Amino acid sequence: DFTDKMTKRLQYFRPGIKSARNLYAAVVLNTDSEKWFAQSLDKAVEHYDHVAIMAMPYMENAPDPEQWLADLHTAVEDRLGTTDKVIFEFQARDWRGQMNIPTETLVSQFRDLYIKGSLNVAYYPDDFLSDHPELKTLIPGFSLEVYPFRRQ
Question: How far apart are CA 29 and CA 127, in angstroms?
């Protein structure tokens, strides 16, 4: 309700404004966690233009990051029937060991979701001072001009 009112007011100043909400992946993978985090995928999709899900398997200590991401994608599709309003937000750094996730790993994870039909991906953090993720490797895996599965 608050978000809807705020967005409506802001549209006066910015007619094309879009709203987005971050959600923990646990909210999608375990509906009981909706109460713990006071977040709901279904309600967020209803009230926001986009929902960014923290698709961060290393932060979640997932033993198999690729399977964890596949399960997350499946859970979103099962709940919503689509991933069109969802942005999968990947981690470019493993904070547990203070190590960067290899750019090739990020690109591979993006492509796994593209193949499943999800086109909205993001990553955090972007360490432009150290060129991580490495831009020349990232762009071919991040751009739909280079990797087009679905065109309008």
Answer: 29
